[in-house]
Amino acid sequence: MKVVGVGCGPGMLTEEAIRVIRAAAEIHGSRRAIELARAHIPEGCRVVEIRDYGTLTGLPARAVVLSTGDPMLAGLGRTGTAVVPGISSLQVAAARLGIPLTRIVVVDAHARDRAEAVDRAAGEIRRGRVAFLLTDPEFDPAALAAALRGMPGRIRIAVCDRLGYPDEEITTGTPEHPPGPGSSLSCTVAGEWE
To answer: Could you give the domains of the chain?
Structure first.
């Protein structure tokens, strides 16, 4: 089974991903992933919307599983025998904010213990890193801001919403005046950057 990253927004499929999708006889993915790849899915291809991610291990070897963003960034990459990378929200956020990827550490706060994620991000920021948080709609940047108040330097917080979509929006703030929460398609970046 191949897992193919379809990017975090429209137009972010790689040429390799397009080749694999165009050659597929059977594709599985979330509604959003299928829509991002729709223009490249061949006629006659069996397309199945994934409703239970626990069933992925039972898919046939010829199946192609679409993963939004990059499958190896807290995605479905661990389930496949082969992975085709995609353009992730991490890459797009770094590009939009002008942050070198070598300065960033990833913190998974998506459906996880948010207090633990905030503590980990704050610790990384104290060490001079920039934290990229994979978040969900329940994540409140105010909790992160509270943990960052009083840190030296020019700490910033950015909520990156719907990266790659026409209505993309990046809202920035500080620990004293944080941005509000994002949508279900958002991530948060925090730390000191130029």
So the answer is: 2-87 (3.40.1010.10), 90-191 (3.30.950.10)
